């Protein structure tokens, strides 16, 4: 069964499957014909099956790692892996297989794309002790993918001289492009179908029953804004964003705080009323700040309390988002 490669970023060049956002430039052409520049906007299903008859790059370029391996008595040869790139942008890569000239990855990727380019390149590389080196590459023209037909086959791995990198060197793979307009998840929105699982590959699943509260401003004084009659005849009453945030944090047992902001401690505090501590004082108090923000996962501040959970995603006005 094919291994599913999760869409996670990693800068490591070690073993494992990664969805990367690196750059990989192939310094030679993988096609002898002129190719059209096209946009792939949708999803790519890719399976890198395996390669055969790869050259022994360790014989070509002896390194410290090779000498260490020779002294240990181990047979040293290429440590191949494959990166997949469009116009130099790496969209995914396989794991490394040690000392194998006929590697079998059988690794499957499901990658969202919005890339201009002429071809999807499969770059076979050798993960050497001091870095990595290109063995060769296979180019699949984008024009052949736009029909939506799954392309499957065994392709010669082209080297820097425009010829196969080694006698009989091939890469087996299949690839299919699904354009955005054919992906049901993006047609009517995630709320149109209760069976819809939401955006694929995300850590938290799609949940229903959530609410969104709209505010005229971050903070307004009572009576400063008039109530609004909605189209269904109900009346919308303006609330106070800062006060509601304060109440939610104070009463929450668990807090997931998602935001990026910079705080100027010299700013004047914002008074929310005489019946509660000002938010500015709350943020300037190290003990309260530690309790509310630094230790949301600790049981100590909430032991014995029976309070609801709050998932808070706040974008603060006049703050610099990271």
Automatic annotation (TrEMBL):
<dbReference type="InterPro" id="IPR038635">
    <property type="entry name" value="CCR4-NOT_su2/3/5_C_sf"/>
</dbReference>
<keyword id="KW-0443">Lipid metabolism</keyword>
<keyword id="KW-0677">Repeat</keyword>
<dbReference type="InterPro" id="IPR000008">
    <property type="entry name" value="C2_dom"/>
</dbReference>
<protein>
    <recommendedName>
        <fullName>C2 domain-containing protein</fullName>
    </recommendedName>
</protein>
<feature type="domain" description="C2">
    <location>
        <begin position="27"/>
        <end position="155"/>
    </location>
</feature>
<dbReference type="InterPro" id="IPR035892">
    <property type="entry name" value="C2_domain_sf"/>
</dbReference>
<dbReference type="GO" id="GO:0004630">
    <property type="term" value="F:phospholipase D activity"/>
</dbReference>
<dbReference type="GO" id="GO:0009395">
    <property type="term" value="P:phospholipid catabolic process"/>
</dbReference>
<dbReference type="Pfam" id="PF00168">
    <property type="entry name" value="C2"/>
</dbReference>
<dbReference type="GO" id="GO:0005886">
    <property type="term" value="C:plasma membrane"/>
</dbReference>
<dbReference type="InterPro" id="IPR015679">
    <property type="entry name" value="PLipase_D_fam"/>
</dbReference>
